[in-house]
Amino acid sequence: MFDIKTRRDASRRSEEAEVGYGSDTDLGPETALSGIVAGTRVATAVGWRNVEDLEAGDAVLTFDSGLKTVQNIKRKALWDGNGACPSRFQPLHVPRGAIGNREEMLLLPRQGVLVESDIAEEELGDPFVLIRAEALDGVCGIARRRPIFAPEVFVLEFEEDQVIFASSGALCVCPAAGDMFSRLFSRSQEATSDYTILSQETSRELIEKITWELEEKWAFALARSGQAEGGRSAARQQEMRTSR
C-alpha cells in the first residue's frame, strides 16, 4: 500500500546533549514550534490521510513498531495570528524528495526528523540519526517560508515515542507525551531515546557532513529525474515524427 521501509536493520544508540531547549509550552498555549502542520498526509491503517482528519483511536503506521494506536491529539495554532508570523515560528518548506518525502511538505523548526546517512553509520554505527528540522534550513532546497495565515498544528501522542511516515516517506517523530525533544535535550532529565540524537551545540561538525551527503544524494536524484524526463520527451518526439 505504501512502498516504504518500516523496519530498521541497524543497531541503535543514544547520545545525551548538554543543552536544554525548552518546550512549546514555554511559549504559551497559542504557539507551536513542533508538531505536524495541517494538510500533511500521514500513513494509517487505511492509507494516507491528512493529519487533521485523524482522531484518537486511529491506527498509524510507525517506522519501528508497525501500526500503533494514537492515544491523544493536541491541536494548536502556529502563532497567535496577530501580525506577521515571527521568524522563529516560520515553517520550513521541504521540496519533494529532499528527506525521503515524495510530495512537498512543511516542517516546524523543532519538529524531529529521522534521516538516513552513510556517514552517520560510519561514525556512529547507526545509519539513522534524529535531528531538528531547523538544522536542515538551506539544505536540499529546504527554506523557511512565512505563512500568510496561522495554520493549525497537530501533535499525535502514542503510548511510547514513535516515528511516523508523513508526506509519502518523510520520517517524523511523535511523542509519548509533551515535546519529545525538550525531554531528550533537557539538562534535568536523562536522555533515554533509542535513536542517535544530534544537536547543533554538540554535533555541529557531524551535522554538516550529513547535510552535505544529503545535498549530494538530492542533486544526484534531481539529475536522474531530469535525464528520465529528457528521455521520455525524446521518445515522445520520435513517436510523433514516426506517426506523421
UniProtKB/TrEMBL annotation:
It comes from the Bacteria. Residues 1-26, 225-244 are annotated as: Disordered. SUPFAM superfamilies: Hedgehog/intein (Hint) domain. Residues 37-167 form the Hedgehog/Intein (Hint) domain. Pfam families: Hint_2. Residues 1-16 have a biased composition (Basic and acidic residues). This is Hedgehog/Intein (Hint) domain-containing protein. It comes from Pseudooceanicola marinus.
